[in-house]
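Priority: low. Protein: AraC family transcriptional regulator. Input follows.
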Amino acid sequence: MEKQLHETILYPDVSFPYIMYTHTIHESFPKGRGFNDLHWHEELQITLVTKGKLVIQVNGIDHELDTGQAILINKGVLHVTTQLSHNGQYVSFNFPEKLLAFYADSAMEKNYVLPYTNSSLVSLVIKGDVEWQIQILQMLWEMKQKFDMKKKWGWEYEVSIKTAQLWLILISNISLSSEEAPKYVKIQQERLQLMLSFIHQNYTNNITLQEIAAIAHLSVSECTRSFKRTIHMTPYDYLIKYRIKKSSELLTSTQYTITEIAHKVGFNHVNHFIQSFKKHYKKTPKEFQKFRNDFMIKE
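Result:
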């Protein structure tokens, strides 16, 4: 199945829609969107750095986090982890806003949830500079411990209660007027999501810059500016990068030849594919394939 820009989170237990991912550079557990994988989802996300240093890009802005620091990312916001120190690790708590509302149309939902999740609030960095942030970080460590143990009776209640307490502390200490991004930022993000999704769905075809721009009803120049402003590359560069990413998956999971893979991910010329691949991975497709296969055998 194709990996889409919009992530639909698969919860281990659908009766408790809450998940904690543990990420390193090489893997995510449970299997999910990990390191250097641009995406967005309908759930709220709180990421805690448990080891090393992390750079996470949210709506085009880089945030550097050290061990013990965290970031809240609002629903529907584009984000990607771009840098992680050697042997670094981070966890991401993902949960739907309805968990904070207790039930539909509640006073909590109307007064304390939707005004924030439906706002232009993009993200909030929690570094522990003030007392309320220290409280939140401590609660995140406690939540991680509960997810790690899991088998303890009533752990779902404990995690839910802790999350609601954390949310109350957070909204009690921020001002939407100062934390919200300008309204036009949300519009720009929605347009970019349309264009990125179009690339993800059509990367195997000969798509043009004009077609990408047309999806969001933009001129070619504004389309290019939108990409550069938010993900710091041109639409063409992103298309090539995505094709290379998809080719790396085929190289390690199929028996296709290099030529077949090049054509399957949208390259018309094998030499262009090999050059682009080497520029991205510092290895030819063949070298990458051998390296990954040897690595998997050692594991």
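Residues 183-202 form the longest helix (20 residues). The domain at 19-179 is CATH 2.60.120 (Jelly Rolls).
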